[in-house]
Design brief:
The chain has 200 residues and is α+β, with helices and mostly antiparallel strands. The chain contains four helices and nine strands, in the order H-E-E-E-H-E-E-H-E-E-E-E-H. The strands form three sheets. Strands 1, 2, 3, 4 and 5 form a five-stranded antiparallel β-sheet that branches. Strands 6-7 form a two-stranded antiparallel sheet.
């Protein structure tokens, strides 16, 4: 999911560690073009942003002519590759932090249209995601919601590949509570969290 860098990512740094992630998805091994295998694991928050992510958000908002209201660390995506390099067994991997900067964006007037666009494209989006990472996550035979990192209410693109990822239903409910609080300046989302807010 390297494309998520455009929305807010980077490697999670080692530092203070909190509780286990609120949810975790482990994808199947997927064959890579070089003959190896890649496995993706998603660890879910929401967590307070670290000092580094908060600073990045302050810069992003200022660059766009907006003020920072808060920052939410949504998830970490971990990818591990195993294969061969120079004819020898090899392994590599990394993590991407998925964050959202709550700048003082105005709400958009076409929110319902953006929602309809997503609903019409949802099945095709899930199929494309599944082809790259494995079957879209489910619980009890029901698909997990697709969460828009840059929310539709403030102008997020409804179907951009880098703006939607699957989120466990309980976590999605928590995010739906966190976003309005983050935009209100009254929530906890202006506080600084640890560099590493969860354990594997």
């Amino acid at each position: 999911m390297l494309g998520l860098c455009a929305v807010g990512c980077g490697s999670a740094t080692v530092g203070a560690v909190s509780a286990p992630a609120s949810a975790k998805w482990v994808g199947p091994p997927i064959r890579s073009p070089d003959g190896g295998e890649v496995r993706t694991v998603i660890y879910y928050g929401p967590w307070l942003c670290s000092a580094a992510w908060m600073t990045r958000c302050e810069r992003q908002c200022a660059t766009e002519g907006h003020a920072l209201m808060g920052c939410i660390w949504l998830a970490d995506i971990k990818s591990d590759w195993q294969g061969r390099f120079a004819f020898l067994p090899a392994a590599a991997g990394g993590r991407l932090a998925i964050t959202h900067c709550c700048c003082d964006y105005p709400t958009v007037s076409d929110g319902p249209d953006r929602r309809r666009t997503w609903e019409n494209a949802r099945e095709g989006f899930r199929n494309k995601w599944s082809a790259e990472f494995g079957t879209w996550p489910q619980t009890g035979g029901r698909n997990w919601p697709g969460h828009h990192i840059f929310d539709l209410l403030h102008g997020g693109h409804p179907t951009a590949r880098d703006n939607v990822f699957p989120v466990e239903p309980g976590v999605h409910e928590a995010l739906n509570v966190a976003y309005p609080a983050c935009y209100s300046r009254e929530g906890k989302w202006r506080s600084i969290g640890p560099d590493r807010p969860y354990v594997d």
